[in-house]
Amino acid sequence: MLKNFVSKFLVKLNEYENIAIFVHIDPDFDAYASAFGLRKWLQDNFPNKNVRLMIPQGILREEEKFLFDYDKPLPSEKELKTALGILLDTPNTERVLTQQHIHCKELVIIDHHPKIKGFAQLEFIDPTYPAVSQILAEIFFYLEPDYVFNSELAQYLYAGIITDTNNFMSLAVLPSTYQALSKLVSKGLNRSAIHNFIFVKNYKFKLFISDVVRRAKLTNNGLVFAVVDKKLINKYFIKDFPHTVPFLENILNVEVWTTLTYDLNSRLWRASIRSKEIIINHIAKLYGGGGHKNAAATQFKRKSTYYKLLVTLDEYLVNAGYGGVTRTDFKFCLKFAFFKFFRFYKKL
What we know:
alpha/beta, Diaminopimelate Epimerase, Chain A, domain 1, 2 domains, six-stranded mixed beta sheet, 12 helices, Oligoribo/pAp-PDE_c-di-AMP_PDE, nucleic acid binding, DHHA1_dom
């Protein structure tokens, strides 16, 4: 399947002089890593092509610029009309950052999210992969030695894989993931610098983590959640949107963990949901979001909608056989109890 895609992908690349690389809204490390990695590979192997990243100026956070540094204006609609658009890490057109992909002559999708609706001329979508960076790594390794694959490219893809797999703690990690990592490391990348860049946090941020955990509430049925509001974010002088859901992972008997965090830039409440084994992306979709089977997200204008989501999740866990698994750790939440009692939530 991948080999068949690669041959068609090369044909498509050779048809275009202009290439635009797109990522999803609120890009994570896998999105950035795959985009910067693909651009590097194209620049090394197709030096005469005009390759542009569709990343608006000012969107990269200061701490991200250590690895991902890009500050160029976006191409015009006229330029995009002659370009091949390559969409990475996003399966649906609504979540494409800039929305300028609609102007491209043709589109290619490379993604690891469940397919929603086809809208590209060529696509490789495989939800079994833990990261798009691994898909690209396998493509580039397959094309060696005819095409250049250097340590800078390996550094991008390594960063994408270790973040989307939560430093290999995710159950989505495949045997082939370790094989890909082994080959990437053999390229001579600086693992220590990458790990420090991604995982080392200052003391104040560690206090922020502990505060979020302390505020977390548990239901009787294997669900833990925390609300991170504007006041808490300002308390620790956090400038950029913090990804808080990892703070609640690996709690005994908890099957689903989720956080609601206020985004100071968009002024929206963003909910992230994770699970050990039970599938949860259909519930995120019910509330306007989506994602992977065990990692999904959505966003709300009103905080109250989150409590509806929580009650739906809790009822889902009960029906799946998790009723009472965290009864001894139960922490009461009045708002959750209110929405559950009056049945103000969406049923599956």
